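Quick one - inputs below.
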Amino acid sequence: MSHEVYVFAGAAVAVIGAGLVLRGLTLADNESMNLTIFDCTKDLFLAAVAVFPTTLIIEPKPGATIDFHAGELLATFLLLALIALWAKGDTRYFYYWRRGEKRTKQNDGKLGPAATASHPRLRKAAAFAFGNGLGFSVLFASTALSHHVASLAK
Amino acid sequence: MTNRDISIGIGAGLLAIVALILVLGIETFVTGVVAITGAVALLGGIAWLASKRGG
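Output:
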């Protein structure tokens, strides 16, 4: 396995494990295990942001200078833009999907009020898969990108 | 979902994919796709099993 996969797996296991333990310990008395407890999207985004500077501090040889090139800078800002876009999408759609609801477009082009979706379980599963998939994607991209930048240091 | 939101999401996603392939190379990208798919499937499976047990 490559270096990126090890760091990705280590960071993912650590952040998901810590998140699950914390959410499990803080469950309400009458609350049972549900999909929301396993939704680690925000944890994964935080891990992606934390991995970047950590790798740049640890990996380069002592005294080496790190140079960001245009490509790496563009890719880094695109990752940050993806997180921002997800946050916007979460307030408009995914928050409701996680509750089995949906918002449909009205005649004036604006979104209407939340209503129960025809397949609520499917909506919940879609929000879970999309959120965590994007979280894992951003974490892996951040891991690989920071390793790439650190390996270029001279 | 509005068409504008879908277009922005797909556009930003494709742009990020192209940028990452150009910067990191296709081999790392494919490795990432496999790792991410496995991670989502594993987490989804655990969540599904726990939800079944938890009721």
